[in-house]
Amino acid sequence: MKICFFIGDISKKAGTERVTTIIASEMASTGHEVFIMSLADSDKPGYEIHEDIKIIALKHGSGNNKKNFIPIVGEIRGYAREHKFDVLVEADVILRIFTLPALLGLSVPVVSWEHFNFNSNLGLRLRDYARKLAARYSKYIVTLTETDRKAYMDNLNCRAEVKAIANPLVFYPERYSECTSKVVLSVGRLNYQKGYEFLLDAWKIVQEKHPDWTLRIAGSGELEEQLKDQARDLGVESSVNFLGLISNVEQEYMNSSIYAMSSRFEGFPMVLLEAMSFGLPVVSFDCQTGPGDIITEGEDGILVDSGDVKGLAQGICSLIEDESLRKNMSVNARNNIRRFSKENILCEWAELFQTLDRH
Length: 359
Known about the structure:
Elements: E1 2-7, H1 15-29, E2 33-38, E3 54-57, H2 69-83, E4 87-90, H3 96-102, E5 110-113, H4 125-137, E6 140-143, H5 146-155, E7 161-164, E8 183-187, H6 196-209, E9 214-218, H7 224-234, E10 240-244, H8 249-254, E11 258-261, H9 270-277, E12 282-285, H10 291-294, E13 301-304, H11 309-321, H12 323-336, H13 342-358
Parallel strand pairs: 1-2, 1-4, 2-3, 4-5, 5-6, 6-7, 8-9, 8-11, 9-10, 11-12, 12-13
Helix pairs in contact: 2-3, 6-7, 6-11
C-alpha cells in the first residue's frame, strides 16, 4: 500500500510527532510505501524514521495558513494525484480542514487520528468543526481511548467508523526504579493544562507529614515563575526542585519512587506509560482522558477525583507510608503496562490498513 501520514510539522519533538514516526516507520519496515507529508515546510524529522520513508514538505504551510489555504490545498491535491496514495492518515483531526477540499473527487480514503481529548478544542473552534467533517467524511476516526471513541459516537453523527487504538509504549527499560528514594516525580509542560498549582497545594499537605521527601518537576513553560512563587508562598520551596527541560528523563524515573500527575485534561498521557515502565506507581487525577485507561486503581496506581487536592495528597502519603504497597504497585505497573507494547499497538494499525486494502 501507499500510505501517506499528514502531520503539522515533522521537525517538532512532541508526542504526536513521536508516535506518528513510530507507526510510519513500522509500516515502511513491513513493505508498505510510506510518505510523511509535513504542513510546515521542513524535511528534517525531529525523530529518527525508517530510511525508505519519503518526506513531502509543503512549501506554503510555514506562513499564514488562512491566507495560504488555497495554495496548501492545491499542493496536497497535487501530491495525492502524483503518488496515488491508497490511504491518507491525518496525525491531527484539524488537518481535515485541508484534506477535505484537496481530495474531492479522488478515491483516497482518510483516517483521521485524534490525539486530543474530544471535550477539549485547545482554544480552537476550528477543531470542533474539523471533528464534524471527520465524522461525516473520513473512512475511519482513530481515538486514543475508549472514552473518546464513545464521545465521538455519542456527540456526532458518525458515518466514519470510530476505532480506539492507544499510543504505544516507546521503550521498555531493563533497569527500573527500586522505589526506595524519597522522591516524587512529575514531568510535563508548566502550563494551565498540567495543573501544577494543584500539585503544589497537595505537596504542602504531604510536606507537613513527610518533610524528608522531595518533589521534582521536570519541564518548562509559561507558568514557571508563577509556580516558583507559589512554592515560595506555601513555604515548600526547599523541598520542590524545578528541573527545567532535561535530556535524561530516564535517570529521573530511576531515582524516584512515586509519579504524580495533576492534569486538568489529557489526550493519552505517554508520560504515564513511561513512568510505569520504570516501575513507578502513579497517583493521578482521574481527568479526561487517559489516566483511567492506563491506571488500574489500587493495583498499579491511585486515581483521585479531578481537582481533589486533599485526595491527591492522601494518595501520595499512602504510598510514602506503605513501602510494601509501593513496591507491589511498582511490580504491577511494570507488568500491566506491557499491554501497550509497540508490538500490540502496531498489530492494530496493521489490521486497520489491511481492512482498507481489501476495500
